[in-house]
């Protein structure tokens, strides 16, 4: 029998079901409707090139998929393995996002924190926070003790 999510700490449940979809929807908004703002926030020395709109639409599509999966999986599945596979997959996307932040800063010679804008700190900080929450979940941080869910347990 699959492990259930009955013992998932509330922080994870709230984050994955509510905060994560909203963050992803904002990313979709930026990609589809405000790509100039997306470029200006992370690469202020660059300008948006409409010829690259396809990249923004691809990113927007991914952000919409993340929003839908993040909102629905916690509501329709009680299988902890499903949650962990989803969060591990999204963790891979977060690592890609963090590398994007790094290379945007590096390319512009702004790796030193004193050179970061408020947008740099917000975007980078949010990516770090999201990545840390996902990684902690995948590693089982906070699941220990009497409420630990083990493979084969079926709790409701």
Automatic annotation (TrEMBL):
It comes from Metarhizium robertsii. It comes from the Eukaryota. Coiled coil: none annotated. InterPro entries: DUF7704. Residues 6-141 form the DUF7704 domain. Keywords: Membrane, Transmembrane, Transmembrane helix. This is DUF7704 domain-containing protein. The chain crosses the membrane at residues 51-73, 85-105, 125-146. Pfam families: DUF7704 (PF24803). The keyword Translocase does not apply. The keyword Phosphoprotein does not apply.
